[in-house]
């Protein structure tokens, strides 16, 4: 008798719901933490004096750590068992959360987010394993629907709660708010989750430490090179060294995983054409899910002047739309070829981002919310059919490896997407700012006339700084124009970011179409 079966016999028919509630507490709190901090990013930027290329590490570090530790699920369960693996991951998450709340430097808060990501990478897969074990085979669809509902509702409510806490209290309270839920999850884990399953003990000796080291070096060096390229210079020695180290670690990881007997990531699943096409779509999906939850709060707060609470409320209807779409999409995934809903979802999300790119400072809250809802409906259509279609393309003996690879690719897309979008927005802000500044020259009749009119207006109002400088330009007028041009440059940069995400999703229609091919 397995430990799960023993607990089920001890607690009776209610055990599956006790175990479900336990693991869902951990899943909901870690999923919410991945998006709640995004609402507080502008305040954190001001608190620590961070730029766009630095603050994105709060999201990128979380996702990169989650990507790496997600592959440790089988080893952790075999080595420590359900109870200790889940308790240990929750303890690490609490430690990272407390560290984020009391951090005094940018490096401390980034490290705190990395700790949170490491814990999340174990908590979410372990929860899926427990749900698969406690529910009978004919009820696992219900179990996965419960899991999916919790995963999609957390990002819907999390940003709204975070926005209220930032406005009424402090960004530090965004970290502290999840502590009570974590403690409740730890107490429930100690009561309702069993220890090690003897059938999994063999897995405790299968940890691919060398592969994990190569993967960590690859992720850290690659993301560091991308995020610091704008600041250090893309041809600088540091960026070139980081790029070469990432390339070497990536090649070493692939070579090791192909030759190691029990690899961390079985790369042979990518030989299947339909599965490889599904992974390309999964990469785009990761970019869309995490990239949009990163740039939308930043855009509406920095460009449109929303408060954190208002930016959180903007995302809440879209989260509920995603939650309502998921059951319908799961029904379609069982009755339609997977490429149909996937392509429809990709088109909807691409259209959503294209529409968001047209938003300016006067775009209404309701209209912007409808555009985001359209994208979330698209994401809801993609996920069930993509997972089902990808795993159907593999033989039974490769299902576990394929599921891990698909989740890994999606998370990698999220980490790289947030990183690349932040770099793009930072570079394009500089580009558009320089372009706008070049137009403000004495050679431009319109610019000269605007400066003269502003100077006369300010002098007439009694502003002593409205008088001319030796160069002929009224200083107050120039300062006023600069305050207008900077938000304009930011708006154009975010517009470019939305366009890039839209084009990427439209391009992902091609690999989605390749999912139609019959596997050999």
TrEMBL record:
Which keywords appear in this protein's UniProt record, sorted alphabetically? Cell membrane, Membrane, Transmembrane, Transmembrane helix, Transport
CDD domains xref list: MFS_LmrB_MDR_like (cd17503)
The organism named in the record is Oryzomonas sagensis
Regarding the membrane, this protein is recorded as: Multi-pass membrane protein
Record protein name field: DHA2 family efflux MFS transporter permease subunit
One Pfam family for this entry, by name?
MFS_1
**Main location as per UniProt:** membrane
User: Where in or outside the cell?
Assistant: Cell membrane
Its domain of life reads Bacteria
Indicate the segments annotated as coiled coil, or none if absent: none
Q: Where are the transmembrane segments?
A: 17-37, 57-77, 84-103, 109-131, 143-162, 174-195, 207-226, 238-256, 277-300, 312-330, 342-361, 367-387, 408-425, 497-515
Q: Which residues form the Major facilitator superfamily (MFS) profile domain?
A: 19-520
Q: What family name appears in the similarity comment? A: Belongs to the major facilitator superfamily. EmrB family.
